[in-house]
Amino acid sequence: MTTKEYIENGEKYLMHTYNRYQVVLEKGDGVYLYDTDGKKYLDFNAGIAVYALGYNNKEYNDALKNQIDNLLHTSNYYYSAPTAEAARKVCEASGMEKVFFTNSGAEAIEGALKIAKKYAKNKNHEIIAMKHSFHGRTIGALSATGNEHYREAFNPLVPNIKFAEFNNLDSVKELVNSNTCAIILETVQGEGGIYPASAEFIKGVRKICDDNDLIMIADEVQCGMGRTGKMYAYQHFDVLPDVVCTAKALGCGVPVGAFLARGKAKDVLVPGDHGSTYGGNPFVTCAVSTVFDLFEKYNVLDNVNKVSKYLEEKLDGLVSEFDIVDSRRGLGFMQGLVLKENLAGKVVSEALEKGLIIITAGANVVRFVPPLVIKEENVDEMIGILRVILKEI
Ligand SMILES: Cc1ncc(COP(=O)(O)O)c(C=O)c1O
Question: Which of 115, 136, 366 has the alpha carbon at shortest distance from 247?
Answer without folding.
Answer: 136
